[in-house]
């Protein structure tokens, strides 16, 4: 019995056996590769002991190779390239935790592979091996997983490709804009996608459009204003309106004149009611268009405005003196609601009265003082809200059918935005801070809560918005003290990663 047979069955010594041919198919003598370092070679065999890596040179027509009982911890993706005639391969009893993707590519003649005695981690990096096992004609001895904990001790041979959840995502920096901004809104008008940033120091609403050729965002138009805090687009009957909220000089409404290709101011907003605007929400109820402005002054009043076909008129003042910082429109139990956040009271929930066609105070959210803003999102039909606090913990709450109950808390010193973002099957919550990196959390369906996902370097973020264009998704981030940032949402298949 030859040396290769003894190695396959007995494994009494660590060795490498290489069967070589010194005559090529056309009868010409071919130069035999040098014996690998650490090996003792004869005309037909090579004995390798105490090797820590797979030798770099192999005769192209080798039939069997046994690299066993060594301390090999990693293998190059090209370790066995060119060995098309290899029949038997054993990497048993080494220190391998994973194998590079498609390391057996092109080895169609393989009939047996032995990976026993290694510490294989059955994660996404080995998903390709499971797929290969179900398609190859080669047989594999039983392999047991050393990790991760969910698969520890299980047979790799019993796993299926769908056993692995290998699809993840991340926000990658795409474009940096050289201006500061305090709010951002993405919108569609005339089948095209746009973004508008409120720039308080420059005093403009800065509109950008997507360049389908250069694949970047470029300037579209501007609205000159003073101390701009919100530029809110609103499309009604194919007409684009922009509500421009200013800290000084009053707030105004502009309309896009398509024929003249410019914005025209059509209306001023009552300066006696809106003295210090802080947020704007647009919505429709029973086919009619509304917007509401949260006023943060002591003398102003958060006010709902309604479109009457020619302009917007004051429809309802919600309350005085409470210095509202944010307003959120949402539907609870098929009824329209508003949640007002204030620096002087707990968040207040208003419900729409269909007969009176006005909002009525319903309740507040207990034990939640100093909430700067409230934003809502849905997961599998359930309603949740993110509550932002500058001092203390920001929170996520779930609607239980009668009230919002606390689900999760997040340390948030210096936070002025805690915004949910939905992209396809992914649900995120992005927590900005004036004193630290922005934290991106991703919803974990199994845990029923958010888990840390990523950090973004944005100076003093104030708002986020998502834009879908050309089968791509972008996250737009306003920055009050630095460059406005644009990120692309990327989907990553971890099973395709190489090392």
From TrEMBL:
Pfam families, alphabetized: EPTP, LRR_8, LRRCT
Cytoplasm in keyword set: yes
UniProt keyword terms in alphabetical order: Cytoplasm, Glycoprotein, Leucine-rich repeat, Repeat, Secreted, Signal, Synapse
Sequence ranges assigned to domain LRRCT in this UniProt record: 118-167
InterPro entries the record matches: Cys-rich_flank_reg_C, EAR, EPTP, Leu-rich_rpt, Leu-rich_rpt_typical-subtyp, LGI_related, LRR_dom_sf
GO CC annotation terms, alphabetical: cytoplasm; extracellular space; synapse
Signal peptide residue numbers: 1-27
PROSITE patterns given in the database record: EAR
A biological process term (GO) from this entry: myelination
Keyword set includes Nucleotide-binding: no
Subcellular location: Cytoplasm; Secreted; Synapse
Protein name: Leucine-rich glioma-inactivated protein 1
